[in-house]
TrEMBL record:
Entry keywords, A to Z: Isomerase, RNA-binding
Pfam families per record: PseudoU_synth_2 (PF00849), S4 (PF01479)
Superkingdom, taxonomy of origin: Bacteria
Family named by the database record: Belongs to the pseudouridine synthase RsuA family.
EC code: 5.4.99.-
Identification of the protein by name: Pseudouridine synthase
CDD domains reported in the protein's UniProt record: PseudoU_synth_RsuA_like, S4
NCBIfam families per UniProt: pseudouridine synthase
GO molecular function, one term: 23S rRNA pseudouridine(2605) synthase activity
Organism placement in taxonomy: Bacteria, Bacillati, Bacillota, Bacilli, Bacillales
Length: 244
């Protein structure tokens, strides 16, 4: 179920704000009845009309992007910087990223035009594991790594337990590469966690999202998710396990 104004905006008829105005003006019908309230939600089965013209729903699409560094996880940027949707110029549908990766973070990002699916994956209640490869300044000791595993107190509260694995250490350059698996996705969380234990992040990449990984992909590559992968992600978000 999605909000009526969102469905209208998605169909490309009007912006969400304009769609709200159309609803308030009584120009929108659901199943033949005029709707004037903004909170109304509709399903795929409902017939929506704007000014007497039926709204065509877009086919849902699901993509994975290997986001390069220096790209904004957004649909547009006021400063004219490159955004993730620039990689989908050929696509005639309005898609948006599920969650975000920082400007200077690379890695796996999902994009879709399916609002319900996006909300499902982003909801903190549904614990989807994300794996990051982190290059940090200095070499964290056992105590510091243990702290990351147990949870670090950030200004917006304690982080959930994480899985931590040291991939490699460069004693000469005094850097370490660490794999970190998280079940939450607060703003700049990985960077803030390492900052907190005194090892600032030099380079950050999201390697995995649930069972999806970047195998065979280069920065800037995109691929469509298979219907089976979409089904698995849904099941994982809702029930915490893959459906076979």
């Amino acid at each position: 179920m999605e909000r009526l104004q969102k469905v209208i905006a998605h169909a490309g008829i009007a912006s969400r704000r304009k769609a709200e105005k159309l609803i308030l003006e009584g120009k929108v019908k659901v199943n033949g009845n005029v709707v004037r309230e903004l909170g109304v939600k509709v399903s795929d089965q409902d017939q929506v009309e704007v000014n007497g013209i039926p709204v065509e729903r877009e086919e849902p699409v699901y993509y994975m992007l290997y986001k390069p560094r220096g790209v904004i996880s957004s649909v547009k940027d006021e400063k004219g910087r490159k955004v993730v949707t620039d990689y989908f110029k050929e696509l005639d549908k309005r898609i948006y990223p599920i969650g975000r990766l920082d400007y200077d973070t690379s890695g796996l990002l999902l994009l879709t035009n399916d609002g319900e699916f996006a909300n499902l994956l982003m909801h903190p209640r549904y614990k989807i594991e994300k794996v990051y490869i982190v290059k940090v300044k200095g070499i964290p000791n056992k105590m510091e790594l243990k702290q990351l595993e147990k949870g670090v107190l950030l200004e917006d509260g304690m982080t959930l337990p994480a899985k931590v694995k040291v991939k490699s250490i460069d004693k000469r350059k005094k850097t370490a590469i660490i794999e970190l698996a998280l079940h939450e996705g607060r703003n700049r969380q990985v960077r803030r966690m390492f900052e907190k234990i005194g090892h600032p992040v030099m380079k950050l990449k999201r390697e995995k999202y649930a069972f999806l990984d970047l195998q065979g992909m280069n920065p800037g590559d995109i691929r469509e998710l298979t219907p089976h992968e979409v089904k698995q992600l849904r099941a994982l978000a809702q029930f915490g396990h893959h459906s076979l």
